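can u do me a favor
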């Protein structure tokens, strides 16, 4: 049994430095485990971060930023986004970390503890010749089953994504793209699209482009205050990099890159309704890849791919765009729940949602009746 010394880190620099150092042994050191992400969620959605460091032989071997909050004013729930962070091939270490997290959840009276480790389940599209299972991911899932964790019905983050290996030269990266994507990159250049680096002064512009995209593509976005805080926090910490595409001096598209450890993620993207035929999104992605490579990142994560790899999936169109850059499909093991008290977990996940739906329906009926009685 692996014996760990467990401490809580309360200093930003100490946490991020430990996470960056651990990234050398655990390439799954994800930006959602940074100090800044925990603080963002604390300030915007009420998740209170508790940051555990696990030392073995005097050295930090694992980290877990655990968000804790109360749901429905009754239930305490816990979430470790894209964590815990450790070398998952080390089964003894993983077992010891899970044991501590399970004990912590029990002592806190939590209904559930969700982990969403950045652990690869396999690569390639299922059923295609390039599909390959990952032995470490398979072993992790087996251990979770053994310890009575269950695959979560509530998957918070994308399970699948596309990742581009930046170890190749820029010429090789460009040559690897599909012919259609490469043509559109060059078309944007011919159309006079230029790319500039954004700053905090551009936050309203970035949000306006994002809002327009949400309206056009029918997805909900949060208020400006949320994105202002998120983007500004990560930009000031040196963990976010906005790029803005312009034509004739008019901003027409943007991307916001988040970066940590060895990875640069394409977290946000948007475009206006103007000059869409100038293909600014293709040129933005090419500049983003070049920027990430020039700054020492070895992986460019396009952040999100379909759960089901066919045209019925809502992400299929976005996937077709991303696939043109010829990243590798990477499938993760997803989020898993530990329920210290199974009957309470069943109440929370099965009974409470139905009860809340009935309460909302009853309130709606009451309002309807009130409107009718008052003419």
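np, heres the sequence
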């Amino acid at each position: 049994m692996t014996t760990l010394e467990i401490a809580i880190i309360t200093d930003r620099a100490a946490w991020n430095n430990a996470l960056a150092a651990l990234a050398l042994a655990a390439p799954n050191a994800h930006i959602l485990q940074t100090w800044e992400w925990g603080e963002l969620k604390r300030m915007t959605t009420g998740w209170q971060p508790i940051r555990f460091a696990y030392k073995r032989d005097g050295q930090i071997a694992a980290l877990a930023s655990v968000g804790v909050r109360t749901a429905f004013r009754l239930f305490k729930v816990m979430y470790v986004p894209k964590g815990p962070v450790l070398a998952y091939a080390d089964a003894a270490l993983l077992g010891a970390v899970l044991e501590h997290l399970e004990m912590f959840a029990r002592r806190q009276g939590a209904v559930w503890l969700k982990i969403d480790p950045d652990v690869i389940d396999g690569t390639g599209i299922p059923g295609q010749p390039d599909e390959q299972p990952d032995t470490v991911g398979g072993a992790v899932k087996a251990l979770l089953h053994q310890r009575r964790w269950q695959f979560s019905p509530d998957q918070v983050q994308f399970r699948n994504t596309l990742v581009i290996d930046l170890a190749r030269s820029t010429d090789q990266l460009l040559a690897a793209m599909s012919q259609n994507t490469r043509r559109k990159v060059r078309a944007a250049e011919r159309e006079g699209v230029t790319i500039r680096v954004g700053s905090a002064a551009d936050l309203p512009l970035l949000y306006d482009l994002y809002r327009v995209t949400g309206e056009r593509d029918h997805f909900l976005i949060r208020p400006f205050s949320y994105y202002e805080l998120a983007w500004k926090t990560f930009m000031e910490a040196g963990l976010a990099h906005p790029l803005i595409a312009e034509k004739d001096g008019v901003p027409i598209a943007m991307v916001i890159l988040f970066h940590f450890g060895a990875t640069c993620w394409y977290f946000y993207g948007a475009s206006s309704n103007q000059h869409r035929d100038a293909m600014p999104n293709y040129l933005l992605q090419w500049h983003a890849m070049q920027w990430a490579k020039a700054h020492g990142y070895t992986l460019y994560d396009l952040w999100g791919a379909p759960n089901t790899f066919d045209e019925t999936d809502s992400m299929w169109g976005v996937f077709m765009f991303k696939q043109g850059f010829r990243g590798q499909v990477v499938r993760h093991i997803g989020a898993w729940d530990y329920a210290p008290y199974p009957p309470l977990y069943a109440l929370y996940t099965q009974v409470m949602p139905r009860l809340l739906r009935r309460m909302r329906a009853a309130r709606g009926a009451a309002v309807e009746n009130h409107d009718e009685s008052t003419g």
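DSSP finds eleven helices and 17 strands in the chain. hope that helps!!
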